[in-house]
Amino acid sequence: MKYVISWLAKPSLGEAEIARSLQVFGKWTPSETVTFEQFLGRADARGGFAVVTTDDVNAVVRDMAIFGTWFDMDVVPVVEVGDLAAISGEALAFIASVG
């Protein structure tokens, strides 16, 4: 399964909390069951995005638990847009078939 993860630094973070988050990040390694397709920081330095694939959602939950102290995080399951278009077409056909 593919997920887009986004994070924003909590507005109440002070210098000490930011330093601590960077210290923890420096020691962190992703789970072996998670592949990072993209790992991006926002140009305003307030957060970032990751596109990951994994069959082990618990590995994603683990990382959210670690970094949720400092960041507001969202994890959104996603599909390729071509797949979405095909599924949407099937859904519309089903809806149209219901009298």
Automatic annotation (TrEMBL):
Cross-referenced InterPro entries: DUF3303 (IPR021734)
Protein name (record): DUF3303 domain-containing protein
